[in-house]
């Protein structure tokens, strides 16, 4: 059998720990037998980031901009504990995902992988709900303090051009707590553009919700910028594709989401997205069944699994034990990236291969062959065979055969 050919390289970012082990197995057993993979490889393992003083992460981001499509493995974000674990580390390197997101000015879209064998907790959800979380500002870049006695708090802005604005925040009669938050028009605009673009790419409706009845100026500003972008750049395309852009209050959105069938993108402000993505992903099943896509306003796309490097499993693997780590989200990161590459380059066979690989995963799971994280969630009546990592990948490979 002739292997599928690629024309443009895919940017491949390798990672750490168990995710790196899965990465290798997936390439070897599910991709390389069928595709003449053409990738530009960047090793984003912690060791390599340390050796290059993190230049490798910046290079990988630049390559993603150049080629337009990337696939990324989970990577360690160092913290104090990791500094102690790896004495050779010379600096507490920043989160690669943060670096890449800034470089691409991107928005992260998280989508659950739905299978018949594991039904979501919310019975009427039939299609995935994709959450887009704005990842800049608001309380995540807030300034706050507490005060001990009565007094007055004001907020002042001093423009570099001499403009000055002051508002009274509140006069208080006793101890109080305060917070100043902001967001940038440029960031809100990029967020809006990435959301509209991704809705068009995936042919799904876009919902956006804020609390603009209360935060009339603050949240109202988000609403206005979304409307401006929609009217100016996306309305015609949405109408052509029969898609809807729908703005509603966050309270109303929550109620509608629960009653819906799914099948749309829900754009959320930073905090709402933080909370709602955890709720939605838990209701759909397992973190190991969640994909994550970073999209920049110009449509550049990076695919990955939403889970991390699965450290606990990795330590068992190092001791020679068999792990039952779910590779599905990483497989879908690869299939997503290959499908996108195929679409951009007009390679229908590559698109079809991506679809086939996803179907092979679904078929395997629906046949009851599952890793341990899913085994306990399977619908009654399904004969579950809990397998280890390699057995699962082999079962998918068999269905690809
Ligand atoms: P994690 O790697 O997602 O794992 C947390 C737990 O979730 C695991 O211990 C495991 O539970 C379960 N789990 C996650 N993925 C699974 C899979 N594919 N199959 C089966 N079970 C799975 O999160 P973490 O332990 O908080 O973080 C570990 C490292 O990953 C950290 O260094 C962090 O910086 C990094 N991280 C990277 C990314 C990224 O690159 N995008 C994202 C998040 C975290 P059990 O142990 O109970 O089986
Ligand atoms: Mg959260």
Any descriptors?
globular, 14 helices, 10-stranded mixed beta sheet, two-stranded antiparallel ribbon, 3 domains, binds NADP nicotinamide-adenine-dinucleotide phosphate, Isopropylmalate Dehydrogenase, alpha/beta, single chain, binds magnesium ion
Q: What is the highest CATH level, the class of the largest domain?
A: Alpha Beta
Number of strands: 16
What value does the average pLDDT take? 95
* The CATH homology group name of the largest domain: Isopropylmalate Dehydrogenase
Q: How do the strands line up in the largest sheet?
A: 2-1-3-14-13-4-5-12-10-11
CATH topology of the largest domain: Isopropylmalate Dehydrogenase
Series of H and E elements: EHEHHEHHEEEEEEHEHEHEHEEHHHEHEH
**How many structural units, i.e. domains?**
3
Helicity range: 40-55%
Radius of gyration: 23 Å
CATH architecture of the largest domain: 3-Layer(aba) Sandwich
- Identify the overall geometry: globular
Strand percentage lies at 15-25%
Largest sheet: 10 strands, mixed
Instruction: Give the count of helical stretches.
Output: 14
